[in-house]
């Protein structure tokens, strides 16, 4: 069996370090999830100190009542911190305050007897189950760590339920049962699991935040499509993959016609709505593996894997038709829009997103020059231009 004072000392030290780390991050980033997680570690440390005082202090109000209350408050703070990360905190914080208040009242007459410990175990077992559910629901790019954290919370919850049953057993069966050893083992497990949870949590949070930052860096906030950077990154990866499978690729450049007039006539906010409206039309034409981006003010780009030039032309044509045939209705105005499209395609193993985009841009320029609202798939070649004029 592990030596209890050693386990407690290591746990205290780790929780102080991790709590201090969270508070430092909070001071730097001002994100309240870190404050709650830091506070959770701090309260866990206080709970352990209160509980350890049993050795030298004969005051059950501090060593049992306050210790138990802190043991309940610590996971509550961790859960609120987790909810702030997952944005699921809307109304539950008030419920947690009520839970702490009700626990404080229930424990008051029973904290010095076994029932107090039992109630505390059941409350924190339930809190840990809820925390496991929150972690399980989290969208995260670190599935292994997410599973480890979930497993920590679930096993913690199970041992707390077992502890409450062991504490209740002698009273229910009316016999003297000696659970001293197993209860001590549970206490050690409880301390180890709480500390392990505090260790895995920061990693998961940083992966989560890194993911959000990546999203912000690679996506356009107005349309939620990829931005130019995201298009180049994802596009190049997709292109490489496709070349390995000898797939063809089409790159499509789309530009809204006379967009300046929309801004000048209806205002910039209507212009923004028009950009979003066009983005929705674009999304409606895409297959699962296609990628779409807003690569400039009123310029969009698509990468259509496994589509020939002519298949891409059909897709672009459908898009042109849909935009022309519908009007944008906004703030009492009915606005007619159209787009011009240039497409390039390649089977070439040396093709890059940049060269395909440059070629598509050239063809887009031709579409504009030819009168807009049309798809062009070929440069001037031998005096002939293959295009589709409306
Ligand atoms: N509302 C809004 N307008 C934007 C945004 N980004 C760029 N623009 C506007 O888009 C317009 C682009 O104008 P131009 O490049 O002259 O092109 P155009 O008027 O669309 O004409 P053609 O492309 O030649 O058909 C400019 O007026 C920009 O101010 C944006 O995010 N929101």
UniProtKB/TrEMBL annotation:
Residues 247-380 form the GGDEF domain. Its cofactor is Mg(2+). The keyword Nucleus does not apply. Keywords: Membrane, Transmembrane, Transmembrane helix. The chain crosses the membrane at residues 6-26, 33-56, 62-82, 94-112, 118-136, 148-166, 186-207. GO terms for cellular component: plasma membrane. It comes from the Bacteria. It catalyses: 2 GTP = 3',3'-c-di-GMP + 2 diphosphate. Its EC number is 2.7.7.65. CDD domains: GGDEF. One of its GO terms (molecular function) is diguanylate cyclase activity. InterPro entries: Diguanylate_Cyclase, GGDEF_dom, Nucleotide_cyclase, Rev_trsase/Diguanyl_cyclase. Gene3D superfamilies: 3.30.70.270. SUPFAM superfamilies: Nucleotide cyclase (SSF55073). GO terms for biological process: cell adhesion involved in single-species biofilm formation; negative regulation of bacterial-type flagellum-dependent cell motility. PANTHER family: DIGUANYLATE CYCLASE DGCM-RELATED, REGULATORY COMPONENTS OF SENSORY TRANSDUCTION SYSTEM. This is diguanylate cyclase.
